[in-house]
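Predict structure. Chain length: 123.
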Amino acid sequence: MRAWFGDGPLERAVIPERLAAIDPPRRPLPDASVTAPVRFLGKGDATLLVHARRAQILPEHYRDLVFHIRRPHSVNTVLIDGQVAGTWTITGDRVVVEPFDGVPQRLRDELDGERAALEAFVT
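Prediction complete.
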């Protein structure tokens, strides 16, 4: 990380209702109203495996939908505003997204754009 961020110490910022964030020194923090971008994670993605509990990426009530004792690996997941909010699969030449709950209206276009980009990449 030092090669990327420089030699200065990393700063710790506490974001209300979230865990602390670690940021490079003298870099502006995003406004609290900024949402994390929609992201598609593949099976066994290190972000999900390593940080699921510590960073609250995977809400506990969805844990059994992603990791299950009868599956040797996780499922493909969709992050919406920094948290797992659904799954995705490839069916034929389509990427199919299955949200666990409703997707906020303000993020539907972004979700569809990311889905279309992934679909173009994998087909």
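Summary: The CA atoms of residues 11 and 23 lie 5 Å apart.
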